[in-house]
Amino acid sequence: MEAFRRLYPSEFYRKFLVHDIRPDGRALYKIRKTTISVGSVSSADGSAFVKIGNTSMVAGISVELGSVPIPAKGEEMPPDGHVVVNLELLPLCSAKYKPGKPSEDAQVMGEYLNDIAKTLIDFSSIAIKQKSETEQGEQKAKWVWFLNTSIYCINHDGNIFDASLIALIAALKDVKLPVIEFGEDGEVFAGEEKFSLKLLHVPTSLTFGIIDDYILADPTSEEETLFNGTITVISNDKDQFCGLYKTGGTPLSQESLRECMDRAKTRGVHVRSLISKKLDQTDPKQRKNLMSP
Amino acid sequence: MVAIYGPMEVQRQTKELIDRAYIEVIYKPRSGIASPADKEKEKYIKNCVEAAILSTLHPRTEISIVVQVLNEDGSIVSTAVNAACLALIDAGIPMKNMIAATTIAYLDGDLILDPTEKEEKESSSIFTFAIHSQSDGTLAVRTKGFFSEDEFNHASEASQGACERVFSFLRRSLEKKYAE
Questions:
Q1: How much is the mean pLDDT over chain B?
Q2: Most confidently modeled of A59-63, A249-253, B15-19, B117-121?
Q3: Mean pLDDT of the region B51-71
Q4: Partners of B102 in beta bridges
Q5: Do residue A252 and residue B36 have CB atoms under 8 angstroms apart?
Q6: Averaged over A14-26, what is the pLDDT?
Q7: Cα-Cα-Cα-Cα dihedral of A248, A249, A252, A257, to 10°?
Q8: Which of A263, B11, B63, B101 is the most buried (most CB within 10 A)?
């Protein structure tokens, strides 16, 4: 049986799909057990560890201040902060990835995550209050927030994107930013008070794969090799969709797309309640100061 | 502008596939080097044309599709897909069917087809749909921005009509060229 599975994976899978079930016993739309844990990386300012089945992702956020030049009058002011997401798919997690420059998967998924990350936080509401302008005259530069997020895959068993997005959201909710104070000579240091980030919306995603006419939710890595196409639907808590990516060779009808969108919404409700439950449970920990030695 | 090279010998040995041609898409922006955003566009374009090309007729070869942006004023990805389809036919690469793509944006609640760069910047959501000539249904789609389910469904229906127009344009261009 094992030999049949290795030699003819598509035929092996089709034998199960005909009966609306998958080799691991799941129904076509069943999603694997999802667990989230926040604050596990003590050296990061915010972190989260997410597992969907065997797929494991860790997200860590390090908060930094950067000095951004203020452009000449008339030009747009630069934003008060940035969330930069770097998705790392290392050979550690799967034999698919070789050392060296980032794989195509990592770049493309990183791009999707960055698109979402840009919409999550309203930095103008937490902008750093600069030193008063009257003292120095024209301000040349301003301090802005940089939330550098690294998401690492620890184990790749399919559906990296969903796990990455959950990890990103949970880590952002875990981050505590210090109130920034200015010293006499203009040096910046982090005050004692800390505040959490308020996210503008909470997106979650659900990825599906298409084999022949079957649509499978939450694929494992074995299933991913057999697909003719994938669909990722990203929905949020404001009853909107913030992304829909369908790739691959089989055209899909309107009804199938609609079904996927509905399932993504249901999944979103479940994931968001998981995240809030986890965040309520975690004790607030001492975070390291921004500028401490 | 899209240039097609192939079927030719595979440039990187590791990419060689024994049962089919390896299809590569290289997207070159007007200036500068390709960024991860361009990589995403490459993947989308590759996904659109991959299904249409009869790659099993040319195993162990490479078909290289190079997209060079000459001028960018919105709807760049759908333009690239349409150009790639025409270029593939012009190159004589065997294909099952034709692909057409359109970009649709929602600006202040109104649906607009084929937005310009200025319109794209101001819109609340942008969709790029691709369909192929032999069936209804969406072949590939990518989105930016926020939208509701209804907006998506309307955009999807609009794209069907728009892609039909693109197909007739592709056919007319080909007929003109091969009529001589």
A1: 89
A2: A59-63
A3: 91
A4: B129
A5: no
A6: 89
A7: 0
A8: B101
Option in A104, A236, A246 nearest B138 (CB): A246
Distance, in Å, from the CA atom of B129 to the CA atom of B77, rounded to the nearest integer, reads 10
The amino acid sitting at B95 is: M
Q: Extract the tokens encoding B111.
A: 């649906």
From chain A, pick out residues whose CB is under 8 angstroms from the CB of B156. 254, 257
**A278 pLDDT above the threshold of 60:** yes
Q: Are the beta carbons of A252 and B136 closer than 8 angstroms?
A: no
User: Closest partner residue to A251 among B132, B143, B149, by Cβ?
Assistant: B132
Q: Which residues of B touch A114 (CB under 8 A)?
A: 36
pLDDT at A287 exceeding the cut of 80:
no
Length of chain A: 293
Q: Which chain A residues are Cβ-neighbours of B132 within 8 angstroms?
A: 251
Q: What single-letter DSSP state applies at residue A250?
A: S
Query: How confident is the model at residue A141, as a pLDDT?
Result: 77
pLDDT of residue A290: 34
ipTM for the assembly: 0.88
Phi, psi angles (nearest 5°) of residue B137: 100, 150
Work out whether strand A229-235 and strand B2-9 pair parallel, antiparallel, or are unpaired: unpaired
**Number of CB atoms found within 10 A of residue A160's CB:** 26
> Closest approach of chain A CAs to the CA of B179, in angstroms?
32
Residue scoring higher pLDDT (B50 or A193) = B50
Query: Is the CB of residue B127 less than 8 Å from the CB of residue B159?
Result: yes
Determine the average pLDDT of the residues in B20-36. Answer: 90
Please, what sign has the CA dihedral across residues A195, A84, A236, A273? negative
CA A130 to chain centre: 31
Half-sphere exposure of A216 (CA within 13 A, CB side): 32
Rounded Cα distance, A56 and A34, in Å: 10
Pairing mode of beta strands A141-155, A81-88: parallel
